[in-house]
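Thread: "does anyone have the structure for this chain?"

Original post by V.I.:
We have the sequence but no experimental structure in hand. Need at least a predicted one for the grant figures.
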Amino acid sequence: MSNLNGAIQRSVSINFVGRYSNIAVQLVVTGILARLLNPHDFGVVAVLAVLVTFFSFISEMGLGPAIVQFRELQPSAVSALFWMTVGVGSLLGLVFALSGPVIGSFYRETGYVSLAQYLAASIALSCWGIVPLALLRKAQQFRSIVVVEVASALLSGVIAIGAAYRGWGVAALATKSVSYATFMLTFCLIASRFNPFTRPDFRHIGNVLTYSGYQFAFTIVNYFTRNLDKLVIGKLMGGNLLGMYDMSYRLMLMPISNLTQIISPALQPIYAVHQSDRSTIFASYRQVVRILSIAGGFVGAACYLCSHEIILLAYGEKWIAAATLFSILSLSIPVQVVLSSSGAIFQAIGRTDLLSLSGLLSACCSVGAMIAGALSGSLVLFCWLLVGSFFINGIQAYIILIRYGFGETLRCFFRPSAGVLCGTALILAACVAAQCFIHPADFSIATLVGKIATLTILYIAVLIVTGDLLFLRRCLSLRNTSAEERESKLALNEGLPS
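Reply from O.Q.:
Generated one for you, tokens below.
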């Protein structure tokens, strides 16, 4: 199991470098484009970006995880899946292009017609790149994926900046999207050494399509659930409250996405290799959840305790009313950080049917909470109910995963994480109590640093008591040793004969 965890650690390190390199490139490119273009240009593309994202979700069809999962796929079957994505991507791109006049009429913006036709190419190209990118993930070529993503972001950014400098206006942003998809497809084809012209065989992809069908159902349900809150608030509470909520929610999602996007992409490709040995996956994933619980617990407590200062630092004084919303939503960070990794495990053990069921139950719970909160007319109550639904969804998801996916008990699964979970709950309770006695003041770096320092000391003390600090040190010490040394150290740490 130490070899398995070592592979995860190495891939996480690579994903960390790749993700933050990509963020750095995007920040620089966006900063330059913001100076060459006007807010209206960004607003026009933002509207179409929502629709492009939705069409991309449909075109993916869950095939990426399916290709990673099925190890025995022959080149002819992979070729069949590739040409299937070519057909689906081309069809959806055509539909999007033809919908341009409808979009333009709805928003009363004639420019949407030509932009929709342009961005249709982005939808098609993104779909065509699904198979070669999945092959890289299947081969655990995480370093190659990082190079491909960063190079594509950099080159497409340079092209967009050049287009904006030449006065292309909003078309420069569309060019960025299309060129990024083009580079991703080209580089993935080169890096994966995939030959799309192998004679396709459609007779042996039935299991893949069944697997991907459940994954596709989960993705669609999850997409609508994640975006329904804004539609409900906007309809029943108005644009002002929607703006407060949306900015608070985005800020809450930042640590979640930055933590999980460097871990979750590595889990399915690595665990899929051991899909026939679920006990090994179970033992390894328990340790991953323990690490995520430690990280998520600290970040959630920090965001809650420093919500006032974070809002002022991020958005300014006119957004101070969002601090209460952000503090409430922050309480869900620990459970969301852990829960976000579960999808990759459902995929790795080949149970996307259970993933789809869990997603449907989560959707029912979240939608019910959203509607009840919106009908109450209180945005604060809306946030509390939403946070409650996240906890309920976490419980049901792990009941389904552990009991029906692994055939194990929740007590056995969460035993290694019990200490940090209880410690996090106590710290969050202390933070809630502290907020009752702390009166918000004007933003001060000293106050923010003081709160973070105090929380860090308390959290380290809790980790020492629970033994999780020693666990983290063991994880780091296993990172730079050979496979034999890792086996020996792990056995010694666990009190087992090496």
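V.I.: this helps a lot. The CA atoms of residues 492 and 498 lie 7 Å apart.
O.Q.: and Confidence is low (pLDDT under 50) at residues 480-498.
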